[in-house]
Amino acid sequence: MYLPLFLTGEPYLLSTAMAGLVLTLSGVAWAIASQVQGRNPERLSHELCLRIGLGLLGAAIVGSLLATLLVLPPYVFMITWALAGAGMGIMYPRTTVIGLQSSSLENQGFISSAMTVADALGAAVTIALTAIVFALLLPLGTVTAVAVAITVALGVWAAGLFTGLRAHVEAPEAVAVEID
């Protein structure tokens, strides 16, 4: 979310349309990756989707951090955030399925609500903490503030990696239905 702001300021000075292209490419990559994972459930297990998604997201965050620190050309951010979008597109839909498959039929409503609240709360807290860090560090320069904000994102990713690599879901057993 700080990337378009960063790209419109020093040292890049891109137009808002060009800076916003980073987010557009990320959204398109998210949609395409989500479509791919949804159409290949036999070949892409939940665990594999989590690992691929976390890998792409980690590569995107590290790549963005390096691009920020080294002041690499803006197209590097377009590539890294397309990777981030693809990672989220592969991983995000599967987290819902994992949560629902891991719960009993009676608890699925509760689990679905809990996941929605956790998603919203996690995003709000992360954005708020990053905003505080960004605002406090902005006097040191935009590059420093953005680099630290990306480092915070890297910490959140590491927590996701820790839990994501432990995820394992057994496929639910088929229920035979007799028709009389």
TrEMBL record:
Signal peptide: none
InterPro entries noted in UniProt: MFS_trans_sf
Superkingdom per UniProt: Bacteria
Keyword Glycoprotein found: no
Transmembrane region(s): 12-36, 48-69, 75-93, 114-137, 143-162
Keywords of the record: Membrane, Transmembrane, Transmembrane helix
Record protein name field: MFS transporter
Lineage: Bacteria, Bacillati, Actinomycetota, Actinomycetes, Micrococcales
